[in-house]
Design a protein that fits this description.
By secondary structure, this protein is mainly alpha-helical. The chain is 64% helix and 7% strand.
Length: 109
């Protein structure tokens, strides 16, 4: 009896996020109902992955340590600023109004 209950709990813990993720995908693809699509689209800007993808990643991370490293790497990449310039003087520049492009030679290292 206890084993049956634990299997049912695990099935719910695994299946509910998958079903939510599938429903989210269908709503975003079809656009119906519109109020749910607006709600999901607004939330999608904040988090790149849905509940189903997050649950899948966490389940795979539990089974495989390499997946945990991949999830942490993805989080770090999301937090790091990606600037075009790294603080050095710009070596290239394009002036569209004047129709000129500037390329300065760099130092040989």
């Amino acid at each position: 009896m206890v084993m049956m209950v634990s299997v049912m709990v695990m099935a719910v813990v695994v299946m509910v996020p998958f079903l939510l993720g599938a429903a989210r995908h269908v709503v975003l693809r079809t656009g119906r109902p519109k109020w749910v699509r607006r709600l999901l689209a607004a939330r999608a800007k904040d988090t790149p992955t849905g509940a189903g993808a997050t649950a899948t990643d966490e389940l795979l991370a539990f089974l495989n340590a390499n997946k945990r490293v991949q999830i942490e790497q993805r989080e770090e990449e999301r937090l790091i600023r990606h600037d075009v310039q790294d603080g050095a003087p710009p070596r290239t520049g394009v002036d569209l109004d004047a129709g000129t492009a500037v390329i300065r030679p760099g130092r040989a290292e």
